[in-house]
Specification:
The complex is a heterodimer.
Chain A (H helix, E strand, L loop, with lengths): L7 E12 L2 E13 L4 E5 L6 H9 L6 E10 L2 E2 L5 H7 L4 E4 L3 H4 L6 H12 L4 H14 L5 H4 L9 H13 L5 E5 L7 H17 L3 E6 L2 H7 L2 E6 L2 E7 H6 L4 H8 L56 E2 L15 H12 L1
Parallel strand pairs in A: 3-8, 3-9, 6-7, 7-8
Antiparallel strand pairs in A: 1-2, 1-4, 4-5, 9-10, 10-11
Helix pairs in contact in A: 4-5, 4-7, 5-7, 7-8
Chain B lengths: L1 H10 L1 H17 L4 H6 L5 H11 L5 H13 L13 H36 L4 H15 L2 H15 L24 H7 L3 H38 L2 H8 L4 H38 L5 H10 L3 H29 L8
The chains are: A alpha/beta, B mainly alpha.
Chain lengths: ~350, ~325
């Protein structure tokens, strides 16, 4: 293996939340690598731990979060062991993040130009008089019309799509090496969504920036990512280049997820839903493979251990019984229904 | 901006008319006959009638009201029966004492409540959060007159640190030349340091008494509001951008958290105007609150009318000030509304 050193490499990472109603085993055995300039899609159902993982990488997790193990190495520094001051130096300068709901993600009572200046002032050695021109420059780069005037705008005076452009300008003001985009187009209409995604893609290419694109929309991830990492209930279950993942998914969950994703010519009736729900992550008796209770191919081995996923492999899968190429044809509906009581047992 | 202020003031006129009507009716409905009261115990029926006629109290209520309005329009609040002085003059003389006390109390409350609320919100469950909880509970459950008496008892009678709780200044001092009527400011303007210190010492206990009462709602609101803002999305953005803790706390969180605090500030200020009456009585403070009480016990209706009207005007001005502060903090608040 002479692959280049990844920009971000997460190894055996686990995280849990101590809450009043018990410990939530939110993330376990996470292995993930992002290379320079690469766009990686992080896909999974709501509650699968996508956002929790990204917050943990940036060190902005909730107070109740406890790292249970592993490393997350970025530029030679383990982000999980780093001091808060070291992390704060990296955030916004080396690793930036954009969020869903751009309207609430910006300070409602501060001019957007000033908010960009705050970031520049913190990270970039920009002299005071140049701050304003740099902020306007950042707004121009995200194609905001009339940036000199918009500099003085407040978030409530802009549309949702405009606010997301401002968020991107804010995140990219210091030219980070990695952008974490947490569902950046959720809540925007479809035409705006395409505009925002094209903008992120274009800027990433222009600045050689890696992007971790978090979404629950497999179709959107397919359009914009080089590689897709599939998460289920706090586990990474599969990681593969986009074409390979869609052509020959190896994890049963991925295969079902693809079947549940509408394509250009698919009929509503042809879409299937994935039986069962995510397991309750507060359970103490979580099976090693957290998909085993929803899986049709489950065997005794799945309830004993989980194969370790190899982040360096081109196509990695965490399953004892990975599907072979061509095996991932649709399951008959009756077959799925008959499997449910069995899975629940 | 000026136009907006003017419009707001015009908009307050109906409120003031309401205040005028209600105070007039209430003072007329007061038990006791002012004429009989001022004629004295030994007065004959004729003498009482004479006084009644002189005061205009033998006229019908609508007639009395029109006379009252005419006087008001000329800036005449009537004469105080017990002192013989024009009410307007007396109120103008006493108002600075009340304002000085109220603002000192408010300043004390804000200076304690805001940092306490912010600290409690940033460290939930810590000892400072518990302290905040204890103080806010104690603050609302202790009545003002009681805290006033307690403070005097402890700091004047037991410990002897505080000066005697009687009035604005120790009798050995001459009051400063009246510029604003507020001793602290006047003594500073005339450069009398000793006098400033003396007036300050007199002010401490009553101001704390006033402040303790409003500290609780302020601290509680600051804490709740800060907690809400700190968990909002834009704080997460600020953290994800690596902004410094102090920038996040003050520039981002605190300014946003201030909005409901300012609203509460307006509310507690009106509590303060009300509790003036009690605190001034306990500390023999020569403000308009004690003036109102003395007049009330003497069935002296003109000062009471003047007092309530003054409070009404203060309240209108205060609300205007709060609205302006709100518009200054939050760009989303349009002043035109």
């Amino acid at each position: 293996m002479n692959a280049p050193i990844p920009l971000l490499e997460v190894r055996d990472f686990g995280l849990e939340f101590r809450t009043r109603s018990g410990t939530v085993h939110a993330l376990a055995d996470i292995n993930l690598a992002i290379h320079k300039g690469e766009t990686v899609g992080l896909v999974g159902e709501s509650g699968s731990g996508k956002s929790v993982l990204s917050y943990a990488i940036l060190g902005i997790s909730d107070r109740a979060a406890r790292v249970t193990g592993g490393t997350a190495v970025f530029g030679g520094l383990d982000l999980l062991q780093a001091r808060e001051s070291e992390l704060a130096d990296i955030r916004g300068r080396e690793v930036s993040m954009i969020f869903q709901n751009p309207r609430t993600a910006l300070n409602p009572i501060r001019k957007i130009g000033r908010q960009i200046e705050d970031v520049l002032k913190r990270h970039a050695a920009v002299p005071g008089i140049a701050l304003k021109s740099r902020a306007i420059e950042a707004l121009r780069e995200v194609n905001i019309p009339d940036p000199e005037r918009r500099y003085h705008a407040y978030p409530f005076e802009l549309s949702g799509g405009m606010c997301q452009r401002v968020m991107i300008a804010l995140a990219l003001a210091c030219k980070p090496a990695l952008l974490v985009a947490d569902e950046p187009t959720t809540g925007l209409d479809v035409t705006t969504q395409a505009g925002i995604m094209d903008l992120i893609k274009g800027l990433a290419a222009a600045h050689q920036m890696a992007t971790l694109f978090i979404t629950h929309d497999l179709g959107l991830a397919a359009d914009y990512c080089d590689r897709i990492v599939v998460m289920h209930a706090g586990h990474v279950v599969e990681s593969a280049p986009v074409a390979q993942l869609f052509a020959a998914p190896r994890h049963p969950y991925t295969a079902q997820l693809i079947r549940a994703t509408p394509a250009r010519d698919s009929l509503l009736g042809a879409l299937s839903s994935i039986p069962g729900n995510l397991p309750d992550l507060r359970r103490e008796d979580l099976p090693p493979c957290r998909f085993s209770e929803r899986c049709l191919n489950v065997t005794a081995q799945c309830c004993e251990s989980l194969p370790r996923i190899d982040a360096d492999a081109t196509h990695a899968v965490a399953c004892w019984h990975p599907l072979l190429a061509g095996e991932a044809q649709p399951v008959a509906k009756a077959q799925v229904e008959s499997a449910i009581p069995e899975a629940g047992a | 901006m000026l136009k907006v202020i003017l419009w707001r003031l015009i908009g307050a006129i109906p409120n003031l008319i309401g205040v005028v009507v209600i105070t007039f009716l209430l003072t007329r409905a007061l038990p006791g006959d002012p004429a009989a009261f001022f004629a004295g115990q030994a007065a004959t029926v004729e003498a009482v009638e004479q006084i009644r006629e002189k005061l205009g109290l033998n006229k019908t209520l609508p007639e009395q009201f029109i006379v009252y309005l005419k006087d008001l329009a000329r800036g005449d609040f009537g004469l105080s029966l017990s002192t013989g002085q024009p009410v307007a003059t007396e109120i103008i003389q006493r108002l600075p004492a009340s304002i000085e006390l109220t603002f000192a109390g408010l300043l004390f409350a804000v200076a304690i409540a805001l940092p306490l609320g912010v600290l409690a919100a940033t460290r939930p469950g810590s000892w400072i959060d518990q302290l905040c909880r204890i103080i806010t509970t104690a603050g609302v459950s202790l009545p003002t007159f009681f805290t006033g008496l307690l403070l005097s008892y402890v700091f004047y009678f037991l410990l002897g640190i505080a000066p005697s709780p009687l009035g604005r200044l120790d009798p050995v001092f001459m009051s400063p030349r009246a510029i604003t009527g507020m001793y602290l400011i006047d003594s500073l303007l005339t450069g009398e340091g000793g006098l400033f210190w003396a007036a300050f010492k007199q002010l401490i206990l009553p101001a704390i008494t006033m402040g303790l009462f409003v500290l609780a709602p302020l601290a509680r609101m600051t804490r709740a509001s800060m907690l809400g803002v700190l968990s909002s999305d834009f704080i997460r953005t600020a953290r994800a951008s690596g902004l410094k803790g102090s920038t996040i706390l003050y520039t981002y969180a605190f300014r946003n958290a201030l909005l409901p605090v300012v609203t509460t500030l307006g509310m507690v200020f009106s509590f303060l105007l009300g509790s003036n009456v009690l605190v001034e009585k306990v500390f023999a403070w020569p403000g308009i609150g004690s003036y109102a009480i003395e007049s009330l016990t003497a069935s002296d209706y003109a000062p009471i009318q003047g007092f309530v009207l003054t409070m009404g005007v203060l309240y209108v001005l205060l609300n205007l000030l709060i609205d302006l502060a709100y518009a200054l903090i939050d760009p989303r608040v349009g002043l035109e509304a």
